[in-house]
Amino acid sequence: MIKVSLKDGVVKEYNAGITVLEIAKDISEGLARNACCGMVNGKVEDLRFAVNEDSTVEICTFDTPEGKRAFRHTASHVMAQAIKRLYPETKLAIGPSIDDGFYYDFDREKAFTQEELDAIEKEMKKIVKEDIPLERFELPREEAIKFMEEKGEPYKVELIQDLPEDAVISFYKQGDFTDLCAGPHLMSTKPIKAFKLMSVAGAYWRGNEKNKMLSRIYGTAYTKASDLDAYITMLEEAKKRDHRKLGKELKLFALLDEGPGFPFFLPNGMIVKNTLIDYWREIHKKAGYVEVSTPIILSRQLWETSGHWDHYKENMYTTVIDDQDFAIKPMNCPGGMLVYKQEMHSYRDLPLRVGELGIVHRHEKSGALHGLMRVRCFTQDDAHIFMTEDQIRDEIKGVVELIDSVYKLFGFKYDV
Question: Chain centroid to CA 82: how far?
């Protein structure tokens, strides 16, 4: 017999080998129906997981983060199964759950259309209705590679090859579909009733632009249709408040093909921007800061000293002036250090709080650009504080208080 400590502090005795699902059933049939996975000794485990020693066990429903992930991970498998049924030539890459849903990356000759997404959703509904059990099994590494090679899944083969030679590889089978997966998953496809495929995007295999571009389908899933409807309504409301839409309607800024990632601020936008800068100067002056401005273009030698030339050069814009290499600054710090070095400083001068609103440029990938949230040119509010060791605590507290006052004023929520 083993002792299992439950979430409410109750300790129960069971025969060794009892599964997480069987423990849930012993607690209540309702809990078992809603169970998505379990936490055994603090580790997320499948409902099929056998408990063989004294343990703490918590049953995770969709109301928990772990339960949501297991539920939506199963939804991604349902989508992949539907696609393999409809478009069997499609190759499978990866399909995890994410914060608001799930996605799966596929390799096929053409991108998925909206009509195809509708067809995939229809097939997913059939798979859910079929109530197909998900069965977990394991294979040694070499057998797993051979198994995926026979199925014609090169991306799965590559993933397995990256695992240690002595690794035991787990798979999940649901009817005519089998996927390489660590889990956890629901017991069957039946609970995945409220789902929606949201969009299609391109994604490089393993996030490397040197690899092939795959088709990524995003979706989300809930236990109840009403919750799915509420989520979709929330997204629609958020679109109305999208800063790119408002920026255009209110004539604040423009994003033009002539300067991708380089925003144009319009007269109304400059009123807002200058008001924010006035506020920035007011609060920094009160907090004891002096203001500096450093050049946008500086020599290669400086960026070699800072380490940027060796480690960040692919994200920098460079130029040649009088036969010497220069770079447009991707950050303000090296210039800020040069300002400090202009004269000797006594400990009596410290703390020295220096603020800069510096224009910086970074070469972001075109696919990552997003309105004013992800750009190639932006004004960075930087502080450089020079202090003695015994001033560190008070200076950090001052910075935190300054940040907090700004974030509270604008209603930003944040974590430290």
Answer: 25
